């Protein structure tokens, strides 16, 4: 992860070196090898995704492509905060490292899981969540797109919900490869730990509009950001609504900076009329920058 960016863009290489200085020399070795076993550990995966996402964003900046607004899905909100100037890169990385530790410890104590439900009416899915939760606690974790909602809870409850969703006509109910019931009340100890950790760091007013996962609306006040981020691990990610908020504000070009193309796929289902680009590898970064600089779009 990130090796091609570092080998192509000096700005990305410099950022990765700064990450190594914070996390230790082994971090870059593990990052560039990125074997499945290492990436399955959230203690490593969260800082890795955070760093590579910002390496991609810095690569775009080096080509003159700057965002007019930012948002990030779940962990990605921390990358968005740094991209918007709310946190320094080093402080953001330390916060993410602590978040990963807290979440791993919490998941080890309270085993849980998540299931992505595709092709089920939202109202019916919410009703099924309420029915299941009456006997076996489950919660909505992500409102990702008109076609995909993620549900979270204990291992037993998530499996029970997945079976019920299939019986109710869901096209798919796919268990996610995660180690805990993220974005649920089971993460309350993480929320409390993060609230304490945030007091060590300076949060600034964002330089560009920033939309919160928790409210699906713009947020500017540092104190409000801290509060929402602490709640973030226990509350649903309102991704579809967040993207619609940007579209309502006039944005019509969106770039997924970092590894993968999941958000690009979700955005196509949210609103197929907007332009969506991915910028995870060097050539994709170049093409995205060219599209942004060509004009005629408001880029987010």
Features:
Malonyl-Coenzyme A Acyl Carrier Protein, domain 2, 2 domains, globular, alpha+beta, four-stranded antiparallel sheet, 54% helix, two-stranded parallel sheet, Alpha-Beta Plaits, 6 strands, 300 residues, single chain
Number of spatially distinct domains: 2
Radius of gyration: 19 Å
Q: Architecture of the largest domain, CATH level 2? A: 3-Layer(aba) Sandwich
The CATH topology of the largest domain is what? Malonyl-Coenzyme A Acyl Carrier Protein, domain 2
Task: Enumerate the spans where pLDDT stays under 50 for 5 or more consecutive residues.
Answer: none
Largest sheet: 4 strands, antiparallel
Mean pLDDT: 95
How much of the polypeptide forms β-strand, as a percent range? 5-15%
Q: What is the H/E string? A: HHHHHHHEHEEHEHHHEHEH
Q: Would you state the CATH class of the largest domain? A: Alpha Beta
Ends distance: 23 Å
Total helical segments: 14
- Taking strands numbered 1, 2, ... along the chain, how are they ordered across the largest sheet? 2-3-1-4
Query: How does the helix and strand content classify structurally?
Result: alpha+beta
CATH superfamily annotation of the largest domain: Malonyl-Coenzyme A Acyl Carrier Protein, domain 2
**How many distinct beta strands?**
6
Helical content class? 40-55%
- Label the overall shape: globular
């Amino acid at each position: 992860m990130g090796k091609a960016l570092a080998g192509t863009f000096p700005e990305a290489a410099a950022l990765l070196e700064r990450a190594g200085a914070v996390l230790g020399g082994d971090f870059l070795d593990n990052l560039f090898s990125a074997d499945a076993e290492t990436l399955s550990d959230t203690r490593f995966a969260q800082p890795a995704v955070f760093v590579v996402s910002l390496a991609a964003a810095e690569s775009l900046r080096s080509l003159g492509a700057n965002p007019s607004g930012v948002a990030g899905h779940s962990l990605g909100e921390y990358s968005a905060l740094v991209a918007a100037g709310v946190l320094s890169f080093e402080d953001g990385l330390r916060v993410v490292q602590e978040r990963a530790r807290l979440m791993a410890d919490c998941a080890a104590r309270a085993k849980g899981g998540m299931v992505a439900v595709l092709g089920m009416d939202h109202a019916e899915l919410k009703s099924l969540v309420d029915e299941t939760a009456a006997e076996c606690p489950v919660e909505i974790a992500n409102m990702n797109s008109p076609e995909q909602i993620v549900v979270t809870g204990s291992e037993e409850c998530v499996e029970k919900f997945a079976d019920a969703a299939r019986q109710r006509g869901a096209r798919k109910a796919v268990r996610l490869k995660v180690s805990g019931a993220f974005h649920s009340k089971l993460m309350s100890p993480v929320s409390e730990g993060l609230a304490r950790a945030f007091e060590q760091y300076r949060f600034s007013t964002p330089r560009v509009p920033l939309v919160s996962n928790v409210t699906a609306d713009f947020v500017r006040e540092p104190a409000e950001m801290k509060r929402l981020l602490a709640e973030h691990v226990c509350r649903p990610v309102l991704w579809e609504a967040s993207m619609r908020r940007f579209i309502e504000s006039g944005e019509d070009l969106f770039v997924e900076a970092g590894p993968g193309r999941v958000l690009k796929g979700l955005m196509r289902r949210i609103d197929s009329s907007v332009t969506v680009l991915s910028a995870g590898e060097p050539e994709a970064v170049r093409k995205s920058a060219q599209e942004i600089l060509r004009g005629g779009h408001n880029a987010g």
